[in-house]
Structures are given as structure tokens and as C-alpha cells.
């Protein structure tokens, strides 16, 4: 099976960035530390866009991502952040080449 990557683009409600960052940072750290199939979970802040957060995540496969969405830390994040989000888009990818630094 191909490696699986996902890009999630959050548009936040005005003034929600600090609270959202606390929640997503906790989720990202827990995902990488506790989930065998989660290889990368980056939280990105586009320059000049205070109400936008982008996630870049890499999993061993789609099953690992599906397992991620059932974890307590994800479910907690999803529940607690819902009132902070104005819009969200998700793009799924097959990871065909993973570069190294």
C-alpha cells in the first residue's frame, strides 16, 4: 500500500488562533508520540494570515490515518476545536517520494 499524506487547511474564527494552537499542538504531539503509523504531523502558520492553520501529516497508510481519527486525543481535539473553526478543507495524497533534509 502507498504511504498516505493529508493536508488540512483550517480557517479560524477571528481571535481563535491561540486556543486552536494549544489544541492542535497537543493533538500533533500525541499523534507522533503514541501512534505507530503516524510518521509526521506538522502544524504550519502561513505568513500574514493570522486566522489560518495548515496541517501536513504523513501516515504509513490510510488505515493508520483512520486509526488516528479514532484516538482519544483526536476526538478531544475535534470536539474542543469545533467552535473555533470557520472553514476547513482536506486534501488526501499518495506519498510517492519522501525527501530528506
- Globular, elongated, flat, extended or rod-shaped: what is the shape? globular
Major sheet summary line: 4 strands, antiparallel
Instruction: Give the helix/strand class.
Output: alpha+beta
Low-confidence stretches: none
Strand content: 35-45%
Give the terminus-to-terminus CA distance.
24 Å
**What's the count of strands?**
4
SSE blueprint and pairings:
Blueprint: E1 3-12, H1 17-34, E2 38-44, E3 52-59, H2 62-68, H3 72-81, E4 85-95
Antiparallel strand pairs: 1-3, 1-4, 2-3
Helix pairs in contact: 1-3
How would you characterize this protein structure?
The protein is α+β, with helices and mostly antiparallel strands. It is built from three helices and four strands. It has a four-stranded antiparallel beta sheet with strand order 2-3-1-4, with helices on one face. A hairpin with a 7-residue loop joins strand 2 and strand 3 (52-59). Helix 1 (17-34) runs antiparallel to helix 3 (72-81).
Features:
35% helix; 4 strands; alpha+beta; 101 residues; four-stranded antiparallel sheet
